[in-house]
Design a protein that fits this description.
- Its EC number is 5.4.99.-.
- The protein is α+β, with helices and mostly antiparallel strands.
- The protein has four helices and eleven strands, in the order E-E-E-H-E-H-E-E-E-E-H-E-E-E-H.
- The strands form two sheets. Strands 1, 2, 3, 4, 7, 8, 9, 10 and 11 form a nine-stranded mixed sheet that branches.
- Strand 9 and strand 10 (about 165) form a beta hairpin.
- The chain is globular.
- The N and C termini lie far apart (about 95 Å).
- The mean pLDDT is about 90.
C-alpha cells in the first residue's frame, strides 16, 4: 500500500492544505485523502516535500531525534569562497545557538533546474553562485540565516533531498507515490528475565547448621 508522496513544491506554495488568505496550498496539487506533510518547507522555498498517511513514518521523517539529512541547492548573492564554505561546514553562531557541522560544497547551477515564477531579483554587476548544503537540523529558516551569516544572502532555495529520497526525475509541481516498509508497533510488554542462578546444595546445608542452637547437657 502506497504510504509516501514525494512532491516537488513550487515557489510560493504553502506546505498545508488550507489557507484563509487565498494563497496557493497543497490542495492545488494533491487530491489524495489522508496524507499530511511530514515536516515543512517554507512558502518561498522550492523542492522536495514529503507527505504520508502513516504516523510512524511521519515521526521517523520529521522528528529531530532521527536527524535525517536534508540537502539544499542554494543560489546565493556573490561568489562564495572556500573560507565561507568552511564556516558553514564547521558551524555558525545564530541567535538560537551554534549550528551543527554541515556539508557545504560549491556547485554549478543544476542542469535540470526549472525556471522560477517570478524569477529572483538580481542586482546589476553582482554575480551569484550555487552551494549544495546538507544539514541534519530543522530550525526556522536555518539555511537562509546560515548563508546570510557568512555574507552570502540566499536568493533561491531548493530542497533536493531528504534522507534517501530526492527530486530526480520529478518535475516541479508534480508528485509520485512510494511504498515504504514500516515495522508494525509491538504491543507486547517485555517479560521479566528469570534467573538461572542455582544455590549450591552445601550452602543451604551450612545455612541450616548455622541456625541450629547448641544442645545443653546436665553435668
Amino acid at each position: 500500500m502506497k504510504n509516501l508522496i514525494l512532491f516537488n513544491k513550487p515557489f510560493n506554495v504553502l506546505s498545508q492544505f488550507t489557507d484563509d488568505q487565498g494563497r496557493s496550498t497543497l490542495a492545488d496539487f494533491i487530491t489524495e485523502d489522508g496524507f499530511y506533510a511530514a515536516g515543512r518547507l517554507d512558502y518561498d522555498s522550492e523542492g522536495l516535500l514529503l507527505l504520508t498517511n502513516n504516523g510512524q513514518l511521519q515521526h521517523k521523517i520529521a522528528h529531530p531525534k532521527h536527524k535525517m539529512p536534508k540537502t539544499y541547492w542554494v543560489q546565493v548573492e556573490g561568489e562564495i569562497t572556500e573560507e565561507q564554505l568552511v564556516r558553514l561546514r564547521t558551524g555558525v553562531e545564530l541567535k538560537d545557538g551554534m549550528t551543527k557541522p554541515a556539508k557545504a560544497e560549491r556547485i554549478d547551477e543544476p542542469t535540470n533546474l526549472w525556471p522560477r515564477n517570478p524569477p529572483i531579483r538580481e542586482r546589476a554587476n553582482i554575480p551569484t553562485s550555487w552551494v549544495a548544503l546538507t544539514i541534519s537540523e530543522g530550525r526556522n529558516r536555518q539555511v537562509r540565516r546560515m548563508t546570510a551569516h557568512v555574507g552570502c544572502p540566499t536568493l533561491r532555495l531548493i530542497r533536493y533531498s531528504i534522507g534517501p529520497w530526492n527530486i530526480d526525475k520529478l518535475a516541479n509541481g508534480t508528485h509520485t507515490f512510494l511504498e515504504v516498509n514500516v515495522p508494525a508497533p509491538s504491543n507486547s510488554k517485555p517479560q521479566a528475565r528469570k534467573s538461572n542462578r542455582k544455590i549450591p546444595s552445601n550452602r543451604s546445608k551450612n545455612s541450616t547448621s548455622r541456625n541450629k542452637k547448641p544442645r545443653k547437657f546436665n553435668s
